[in-house]
Amino acid sequence: MILLGLIGFPLEHSLSPRIHQAALDYAPLEGSYELFPIAPDNLSELKILLERLRVGEISGLNVTIPHKQTVIPLLDDLTAEARAIGAVNTISCRDGKLIGANTDAPGFLADLQQAFARKPWELADQKNALVLGAGGAARAVVSALLSDGWQVAIAARRPEQAEALAAEVSSGKTAVSVAALQPASLRALSADLTLLVNTTPLGMFPRVDACPWPQGLALPPQAAVYDLVYNPRETQLVRNARTAGLPACGGLGMLLEQAALSFKIWTNCSVPRSVWAAAVEDL
């Protein structure tokens, strides 16, 4: 009997049980996928849950906000990608050792290529992206974009967090810049942007009216808009972008791509994307 699950807080919005159950049924593997809501300051409960994975009571865990970085000191090892990103979204146990991986980065890049029929960056001399947020999800997105040859800027409500992330991921060849999350700074960047990515939880259920882009500020006129939030399927940011005539999508495709990669790590089973997509087609 396989037991998989998701660590995070809050988790009421999560579609992971639905999509992973579809994968288990397709495999077919007897098992279930459960939610493990753990508050940000509850380190003891996090340790207990990880010990259940270590002893085999749990077969694999996903990690989401706010634990993608918190969990790292509690693990025995990280994959090269997770170490480079500095965030974990998938944990497995091998020979009694807890291994942290990150499937967000490849999942994001895979869906970015599939999500847009019209890709503004293909018509531009340079691929310029602005990432909103500087948490665990932002780390994966920034790392993925840099690996794909993008110029990246970060804007976050906590400037010191954005500065720290930029310093960590910048290299001798590519420097990540930081912009203030204020209309004047964002307006100055907008003209050259070909991609805007929201990695914050703003707009997520139940606060569906929230939007990470400043109210009254026009969206970048030549950019595609990608919002990692997938519940609701059309966030306020995505709705605003489409109203402005911009190509825009939510994060459901990324959720499916990273989930398929996590499932392969835990079970060594490859499940067709059509199975994952069918699990959420009624949403």
From TrEMBL:
EC number: 1.1.1.25
GO cellular component, one term: cytosol
UniProt key word Isomerase: no
Binding-site residues for shikimate, renumbered to this chain: 14-16, 64, 89, 104, 230, 258
Reactions listed under catalytic activity: shikimate + NADP(+) = 3-dehydroshikimate + NADPH + H(+)
Stored Pfam families: SDH_C, Shikimate_DH, Shikimate_dh_N
The entry's keywords: Amino-acid biosynthesis, Aromatic amino acid biosynthesis, NADP, Oxidoreductase
Entry keyword tRNA processing: no
CDD domains on file: NAD_bind_Shikimate_DH
Residue ranges of domain Quinate/shikimate 5-dehydrogenase/glutamyl-tRNA reductase in the record: 121-175
Shikimate dehydrogenase substrate binding N-terminal domain sequence ranges: 6-91
Domain of life: Bacteria
Subunit structure: Homodimer.
Record family assignment: Belongs to the shikimate dehydrogenase family.
Protein name: Shikimate dehydrogenase (NADP(+))
Species per Swiss-Prot/TrEMBL record: Pelolinea submarina
Gene name, Swiss-Prot/TrEMBL: aroE
